[in-house]
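Our working data are protein records whose layout never changes between entries. Instead of coordinates, the fold is spelled out as a row of discrete tokens. Here is such a record, shown just as it appears in the course material:
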Amino acid sequence: MKLAFSTLGVPGLPLADVLGLATAHGYHGVELRAHPEEPVHPGLGSGERAAVAAEFEAAGVEPLGLAGYARVAAPGADDAVIAEMRDLLDLARDLGAPYIRVFPGGGTGQSAEEADAVAARRLGTAAEYAADLGVRILLETHDSHRTGADAMRVLGLVGHRRVGALWDVMHTWLGGEQPSDSYAALSPHLGYVQVKDIASADDTTPLPLGAGVLPLTEVVDVLARHGWDGWLCWEYEKRWYESADPLPDLLEGGREHLSRLLTDAV
């Protein structure tokens, strides 16, 4: 498995510094938070996109994916959501990133069946565009579709190879789903896995990997047992928790912890 970290953990940091951290601490890739307050986002022009791609190539680091904020099950018209996904897909293509991340984002006034249908319809439409660009859309286990079983309801309706799953291990755990069950649900569609750690269900302030309660050992074990060889991406939510320790100080220890889990799982 290859290791990455998300720029959610280093909000606003210039890309050159992000890539420097990745190479200094042995990470193979970086997940880019694709938001206007970050250096890399869909508003970049063609020259800026080419420069970003060149920086990644020069550093020998892979752009794992773009963490976007399209909410595919959200109430309302389809057009804006589909356009948001297309903008992310265009940027991913230009940067050489294989994935974009989208959220479910179902509304409280929807039934589960309605949210599933809305998400599947929009993802199915965007999938054809994604196929033309060679990029894959990943639905994250999050908010209204927190578990693997929840996400699979949508993915089963879509049935397109360019739409898959991003397994956020915190949300499946908060949803009461065991790692083996999450993997069983998501494995036919799994793009990559986001790892993190927290103190408890009531305190989700990010912690160093291995310092909290999330079942990271079990997650890595089930992935290794099934021969999965994709990406583990550390999503340290510093942007939402300003009091959390700085991620750069934790990257070395995080890589070492994941490496130990991988070694022990073999």
